[in-house]
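I hope you will forgive my troubling you with a question about protein structure. Could you please explain, in whatever detail you think fit, how the structure tokens follow from the sequence? Thank you for your consideration; the sequence and its tokens are set out here.
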Amino acid sequence: MTGNVFSGQADNVVQAGAIHGDVHFHAPPPDGPVVVGLIPHEPPHFQSRGIVLDDAGVCTLTGPPGVGKTQVAAEYARRRVRDGWTVAWINAESADRLLAGMIQLADRLGLRTDDAGARVRDHLQSKRTPALLVFDDVADLGLVAPYLPAEGTAQVVITRPVGELGRNVEVPVFDEQTALGFVQSAGGTLELAAELGFLPLALAQAAAKIRAGWDPAAYLERVRRFGSEWIAVEPFLGSEVLATLAVLSADGVDRRILDAKRDPAAVGRELAALHEASVIEFAGEGAVVIRPETQRMVREHLKANGRYSGVLDMEIARLVRVVPDPAQAWQHRVFGDELVRHVEELRHNADPLPSETRGLLVLRNWTVGHLVMTAAFDRAIPLAHTVYEDCVAVLGPDHRTTLDALVHLESALVQADRFAEAIPWVTKSLAEHRRVLGDMDPATMAVMHRAAELFRKSGRTSEAIPMLEWELQTRQRTFGTMDPGTLRAMRELGIAYLQDGRSNEAVELTDLALKGTQKLYGVIHIESATAASALASACLAVGRVADGIQWAQTAAETYRRCEGDDAPLTLLATRNVGNAYLKAGRTADAISWLGTAWVKQGKVLGDQHRDTLNTLWCLAEAHAAAGQRGDAAKCYLMVFFARRVALGDTHPETFEALSHLVPHLIATGQRADALRWYDEITAAWAHAHGADHQIVRRLVESRPH
């Protein structure tokens, strides 16, 4: 089956008759060039190599360590940034770092999905404006090969010791004249340059030492005994800053981390000395990068001197000091993503675990929460499983940190709408909390609340309502009406009543919850926004449409002021406003709000994210209600193909999309396409479930003629 890729908004999609096979509809990428990753700055006394990399396609820079492959690539990347290109710099030393870099690039391009690397590749293949993708320090060419564009205008530069992919460009050592000029400018000799193999990094380190007062002959003797890399690092082995860089991620460390619990001016002076000695590099905006080889050398020294465990403990405490408030995860998502890398690097380096084991596990719980709050569920869920298993193994199942890890795991599954997987974990979490902490502990009641919410979202409202009623009564008796947990229980019970058809009771409870929440937190607070959204739904259910629109707009504006214009909660609230207008019959307003929410969700979450597709479905309904059957068909078509690719031909949601799509296609003169897809889905269901399946019989009986 052939595949097709189209980019753009609903009104730019080609006619259905021109589409065959699976279709992936991409949300519009950001306007203008994008720069992602930490491109190294120009080092001191930089010597341009004059290597030409202007050819399109894939180019692999090869050569021994220290020959300057990264700096050749960085010089080219800096030039392309100045030229206005889209440039991504991705550390590919390991599969995890490569994946993290591809996810970051996908996020910036508005292509977030479970298969971020493939989506970026497909986007670059179809991109007409120039782009450069640099994979630095590639350990395995097989890791990057699936992400390489096969066509298009994008360039790819790979750095590794030996190249086998694309055009191979060997980066040579300096010639004798250049090497001699490099060291002679600092007072060195040809003998020293030859001993260093004419390698640019070693020559830069030697020149820095000689400028600092070393005798060239003495330096040559030291090189022969210990090697140039050790000599460059040795004077700084007592540096706390270098120790920090040695145990955190080699992808770069933000100055905010290095400055925490230290004198920033002293840190600046120390970094300047390390940079002059070619031990570190500066990259991006205020980040510090260290070579993995240097990291390993410093770590071995720390271990040999009995300092390693203490350094790990110190860095755990430092990261605890700088992690953002979880409530502000979205606003600080870029810095938060960097902290996730550092925490996982600490876990990798902490073997055996340091004395501050619990502190590291608390940090890892934070990383899961951050990824959930920033809608990075594809990373959050596997990490949550790993963190919970580590907590059980190290601290035992009854430890409070272990219970917190269990909460993060079930919350990640719930937030990702993976309800079937979440139910056993929430059930386990509730049982463990009741066993360890008792029914009346606030943490147990919070799990009870989430369990009830999950049952409600899963359509098991009759099981959710008694749990919520018990929680609300218990909280009111124990903590009073103005307790935050009491107000959340009141709000959630109101939503459950609404789902159960008890609309008047829902209005009463959600109104009380909103008034209490605003009194407790103030009007501009995320809890107040959530309460306003619940009241809006209740008002719409009882026919108070004007009130429903008002509270939906209040919720959207409050989320915007608390979270930002493009936060997932803000965009969901924007969709809710559109749906309120749709219920009021104001289709033009509905289309405007829903269209805005859909385009922004595509950029932030990815066009195949469930929230994005749900908004697109609502937009289709709004177009249909307005009599705009052609636009409705385009929207339903995008949902149909997205579900077909993600869920398969025999998933009920794919069938649902088809059933809404077909009448609009026929009404707009596209009967042949409608019948072809209808017959394909019918055949798939018959093959999977047999000709007597109720869905198959329904499809056959309802086939348009």
Observations:
- The longest helix spans residues 377-395.
- The chain is about 65% helix and 5% strand.
- Residues 1-31 have pLDDT under 50 and may be disordered.
